[in-house]
Batch of 4 targets.
Target 1
Amino acid sequence: YAASMNRGEDILSVSRRALLAGAAALPVAARAAAPRLPDRSTFPGVEGVFLDSGTTHPVSRAARQAIDSYFADRGGTRAGHHMDETETRVRTAFARLVGATPEEIAFVQSTTAGEHAVIDALDLPRAGGRIVTDTLHFFGSFGLYEGLSKLGMDVVWLTPRNNRIPIDAYARAITPGTKLVSLSLVSTYNGFEQDLAKVCEIAHAKGALVYADIIHAAGAVPVNLAATGVDFAACASYKWLMGDFGIGFLYARADRLPHLRRTRWGYYGVEDINWQLPPYTDRPLGTQAARVTQSNNAEGFFATGTRSHAGIIHLDWSLAYLNDLGMDRLVAHRTPMLDRLRAGLLSRGYTVVTPEASRTPLLTVALPDARKRLSDRLKAADVRIMLASNRFRISPSVFNSMDDIDRLLAALPPSGEI
């Protein structure tokens, strides 16, 4: 807060832009050298063979130390917890990772919170029209679109063909009057990666906007949101961003913001406040409590109240790590492991439902009663993957090696023997 003089009267004025201006140019924390892969030493909490980072990524030693330091500071009554510089650095680092500008990034609680914020800003379902989505989108969003259908939206569900959503299906489904196309850039089910630029081209030609869930793309594969033309994107941070629960990001393309319906007026979106009534000013200047100016960036449209400081401090480390590592190096490290895994699974008679030549970190196998049939075997081998009722999924990260793949394959019998 800063006191300012206006026509000789004391008015308390807040300018978050002024507070952040000095921090905006801070560089991402530099390292002496890029991480060497596989990087097991940075993640000392990984035990046995852990091939399930697509569910929740392990926490690094450095991030834990940073968070411990934060809580040690929080434990003292003289501690100061000024987060503006850290928040600006983290937004800048995420923007760099996904090909955006910091002004297009807002903090949100989760991917779902970001997706709902977009729906609200588009004034749906009141505005009516069509929504096109698909069944390889995040299954947690199915309820959202079923609910919007019940409220009068024309919701069209595309289904996979050969474990992909074909582009021609979008071309047929996106018609004039379509308001939104909603998809996962990388499917949580099988790692299928959409041709996002092509989907956006088709949608924009029909007057529709595009939202992408990027939770399995950001920090996992090269992403350039600006180049794709996508209008909105969101992700949480506990998967491939190597962060924690309760903090994530919403991207809104800068030129779309002026056309959105503003539905949030939170403190973190405030650019300036001039107090008009007591107790913050001695003499009332009007009938409003304050004259509030919201920022015209993504934070101004979507940010609300308190967010996880510990989660942001965690991301301050992990986003620097990922930017320093580089997504091309990460894909190059992972691809031989996934190639060997695919070949080994196919030779054992398993049905792989991840498209061939996929560069994403997820490889999924369709198997009825997978959890029941494999849980004990994998536990005995000290191998952890994602087991569900009708499939299992393997998702290696920076700390995994070919030895991990071989140990998993050794623990999996031919499919006909289980």
Target 2
Amino acid sequence: MAGTVWKGYLAFGMISVPIRLHVAARDEKVSFNQIHRECNGRIKNQVYCPTCDRTVERSELVKGYEYAKDRYVLVEEPELDKIAPPSTQTMEILQFVKLEEVDPLFFDVSYYAVPEDPGRKPYQLLVDAMQQTGYCAIAKVAMSQREHTVIIRPRHHGLTLHTMYYPDEVRQLSEYGNREGIELKPQELKLAQQLIESLAGPFEPQQYRDEYQEKVKAMLEAKQQGQEITATPARRLAPVIDLMEALQKSLADVPKKPPQTEAEEALADKRAAQKASR
């Protein structure tokens, strides 16, 4: 089981629930080390002090904030502990909001919130109440010397928490969303909608995988066995000149979906009902 990254209380009015946070998802990828080509030895990183002209131990290091060129304020861990906010130990719910009002652009890292045994009943009360009202909670929690705004939502009979970016951390791009000079014909929009519908289906995350990582693993296995590496053929794309023609060809290339059986229709209805109840 994933280790606990935060332990404290989730406060809801006068109710406090002891909980633990566990990371809900993480990257899975092939890791590489830095190797010296000449001797095939693994490189080790050392901490070097140019002023003392020597390698220093980790125990000799201290945090420093550069307030002017080459001038630092040194900060000790106990000093940071002194100014830690209450959210270091208590995650207080500040507001309830509808999930659809929150732009996913603000989401950062996901966590599972798990109750300690004494808090299981009030925890489940909060889960069911949020489930039935359709609300998610906004709270604050301090972890790793940073206070995060988080959104807490009911999911699969438990609470899932997402840390969020602050508005000043969300990048703005001037050309994003620029529609100036663009005119869409009704027929073009109709064909685009048909193409979307032809490719639509239920979200099944298990059908997606990282094919690039699979190819990296296959390449490593081939190299261990002294085999040649086969290059992946590149897909050649060009700017669309005739939008209508491109849409019509795209629709023609979409495989026809077989008609749903009664069992498949029932399963689709069940999934839709489950999605609506979340």
Target 3
Amino acid sequence: RGDWAKGLDVPVATSAEDLAEVDWLFYVGSAESFDNNGQKIAKAFVEILRAAGVRFAILGAGEPSTGECVRRAGNEMLFQQLATTLVETFNGLGVKRIVTCDPHAFNSLKNEYPAFGGQWEVVHHSQFIARLLAEGRLKVRPEHERVILHDPCYLGRHNGEYGAARTVLASVTKDAPLEFPLHKAKAMCCGAGGGRMWMEEHIGTRINVTRVQQALPLAPKVIATACPYCAVMLGDGLKATDAAERVVTRDIAELVARALVREGAAG
């Protein structure tokens, strides 16, 4: 799980003493540990945390799975086994505050894990980046054009968080971020939620293709999201519609990392 961070000198906590030296545990999750595109999101977020001077650590190979997708797919027994392991690990290390780029993990850790003894402050990276910008800990420049935002289900409809990602995008775009015709509470799922990431669709148009087709009339250059699963699904949707050469998918962390103004940098 920690291989994505090799060569980046990312702090890895293996004891309560290690975590006592930092302010936040960055929960990476499976998607950003093992998927190549997800790893880019994790690396971009690390770049942002460092630029803001945030004291953080990851658990590396010791990071347990939340089992969120397992529960959605119907294997409750396995989920509860994974939940017990994660809670024992986190509480044994004295975890207090968690930040994650994965809305699935965010929703599960925040709303489902208290039933298993997990009482932590859990923040999504869109909220965290917005906070860092508001506090003046990050300096960014308008870098991107024609960016349209897709609302992840587990961030939006499940947790009512629609503003943070828009605030972040507004700080790094040259023009106002675009909106899908169906957005915020009416946004469509990318097709990955509810464990559907691992299932095949056999009837009608694939959901991720439909979602991409809703964006194309607005001529975006970037479909932005704040979820590694959405990024995969929308990227596949772009390929299926032959739009991948003119439109890309990017997580908001990747867009912010590219727009960072570093101390001493020209311009």
Target 4
Amino acid sequence: FAVEARLASAARRWEDDLRQVLNDEEGEARAAPLYKRFGTAFPTAYEEAVSPRQAVADIRRLAALDKGSLGLNLYRPLEGPAGRLGFKLYRQGAPITLSDSLPMLERMGVRVLSERGYEIHPEAGEALWVHDFSLQLPGSDDIDAETIAPLFEESFARVFEGAVENDDFNRLVLRAGLSADEIVVLRAYAKVMRQTGFALSQAFIESTLALHPRIARMLVALFKLRFDPAQQDDGAAASQVNAIEQALDRVSSLSEDKVLRQYLGLIIATLRTNYWRTGAGTSGAAGPRRAFLSFKFDSSKIPGLPEPRPMFEIFVYSPRFEGVHLRGGKVARGGLRWSDRPEDFRTEVLGLLKAQMVKNVVIVPVGSKGGFVLKKAPPMTDREAFLNEGIVCYSDYLRGLLDVTDNRVGDTIVPPPHVVRHDADDPYLVVAADKGTATFSDYANAISAEYGFWLGDAFASGGSVGYDHKDMGI
């Protein structure tokens, strides 16, 4: 009997075992169409490396793929050593090249030991691909793969589709257990540091946060205690500030301490943020987070900010663009320019603001200026594509400004939805054309109408309707 059993086992094909496991795990009704589609789809190399039981997990993800979508699975390999992880990518159509995936994984803080790619040919439809990576965590690190998998998979997918930047901030997924959206907050504050003349580089800022993951988590927690509409608590925020300061006292490196204290100072100087405004519309209805993140600052509280300091400034961050708006007082107007200075566009805008305040002294005692830069612009040789990218980013830049600006309905001030305010009512925001945006006033007024902003087409002067301050001699 033993010999007969061994002979029967040897005679069974991998596909026969797959059919049995599918029936056991999915039930006959669902297993039948899955087996019909995938029973003979896998190459020999896959069958030799993957057991039928493991293949069922792959089939579930492959069956759920849409055209162009990405399936992901971070897992702990059976009997793998400490710090070893497996990561599978599933895709319909073209395979994922190593030159695309490898830098993303390495910037998430893992070492890629190997990759095996399998082309799957289902009964109907396009070819499917399974890429199986063997990953090693740095040093003696180890994690609970089941707990961290959703964060890791979501972050990788967001980087892959271009919704999140591919940089070493992404190490905080594994190091600090932060989500992609939480990391965007820390990344955006680092961009603010860069524009305000902070001496240390982004690479050093990234490595500092990775070395101090507990403090990184504490900073994100403080941000939430100050601005999350569902848990905002000034008392708890003050206690969190004290806890962070105590943790900073134990940081031995002066430069690392400087980075972390700058983060703390920027969060305290923040007055409003649109982080909790979701959906594509203006109401903050349920949906994905905005593709851009806005911070409104009390400029007098930003550590190390060069003079002169405006009363308020709004910084808008996106993977596609960055922008700033500096305002010298409650009532002030000035142009927004399409800047070509990505390294120091705030310095450019600050210089313009100083000139604007002198020029405007006969009208109002203060001025305002703004500017934005493109980060993923098409080549300027493709003039139409370049201009279209500028218009799209300019529009989102304005949305980022209006997201944190109060509205006026009759005599009532209406705060923006899902925005916690640490300042008084502030409904005044007026913009104008400047270098690169001379023909953009109608786009700006369309955004004003989209938000139902109280100034209507007086939001941006110089358009096809409303007033033109130059024609009127103002």
